[in-house]
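Bumping my old thread because nobody answered last time. Still need a sequence for this structure:
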């Protein structure tokens, strides 16, 4: 495997940095000592890491120090992308089409938005890097997987900051809860939940939710019928500035 040469001397252990590109992991040095000496990275290394991060390379780092700086630069790239990107009519069209069908290939998407494939892919990558497109997912039918009971649960929490933090962490581990919202007013949180039947609902409320030390009260409302259910966000307010 060919080594990727550095244009400067480095104090970083040779086994510490990897550059991932073109589906290959390429060591940046031609040798890999088993026990490299621990040294701090210098300014030139930081410049090199910054160059890699800001130009789309993914860094795989073995040492915690380099992992931290690579993660920080990745977040910096995302923040810069979000600050710099300006959505035009074509970008909005891409978002509109993908919100209705996220499985389209790049060629199919380019045809829908009247672009050639290359610029379409470039725009799509920019939208992803900027965090505007958060993720792609499959939307399942609850009824088809036997989750016919849908409920909204209003939860009141103890005013202790520690218990609130514990609840915020614990709710992430409950698979029955699809969404949890912090609210103004008398209710602290609103949970959107799905269950196969009333027994499962009762078990969750009595044995899981109310047993949490921070929960003081819970009130439930069951969904009788869905009149509208969409994941597509409105984009009309952006068209005036595009």
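Sorry it took so long. Here it is:
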């Amino acid at each position: 495997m060919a080594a990727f040469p550095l244009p400067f001397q480095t104090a970083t252990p040779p086994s510490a940095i990897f550059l991932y590109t073109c589906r290959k992991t390429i060591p940046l040095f031609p040798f890999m000592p088993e026990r490299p000496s621990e040294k701090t990275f210098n300014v030139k290394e930081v410049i090199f890491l910054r160059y890699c991060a800001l130009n789309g390379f993914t860094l795989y780092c073995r040492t915690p120090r380099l992992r931290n700086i690579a993660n920080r630069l990745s977040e910096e790239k995302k923040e810069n992308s979000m600050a710099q990107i300006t959505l035009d009519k074509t970008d909005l069209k891409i978002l509109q089409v993908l919100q209705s069908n996220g499985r389209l290939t790049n060629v199919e998407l380019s045809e829908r938005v009247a672009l050639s494939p290359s610029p379409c892919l470039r725009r799509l990558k920019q939208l992803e890097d900027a965090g505007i497109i958060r993720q792609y997912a499959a939307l399942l039918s609850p009824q088809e997987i036997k989750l016919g009971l849908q409920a909204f649960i209003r939860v009141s929490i103890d005013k202790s900051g520690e218990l609130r933090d514990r609840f915020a962490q614990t709710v992430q581990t409950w698979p029955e809860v699809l969404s949890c919202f912090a609210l103004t007013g008398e209710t602290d949180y609103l949970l959107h939940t799905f269950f196969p039947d009333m027994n499962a609902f009762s078990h969750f409320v009595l044995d899981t939710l109310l047993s949490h030390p921070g929960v003081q009260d819970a009130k439930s409302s069951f969904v009788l019928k869905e009149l509208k259910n969409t994941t597509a966000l409105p984009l009309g307010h952006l068209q005036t500035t595009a």
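The domain at 89-130 is CATH 1.10.10.10 (Arc Repressor Mutant, subunit A). Let me know if any region looks off to you.
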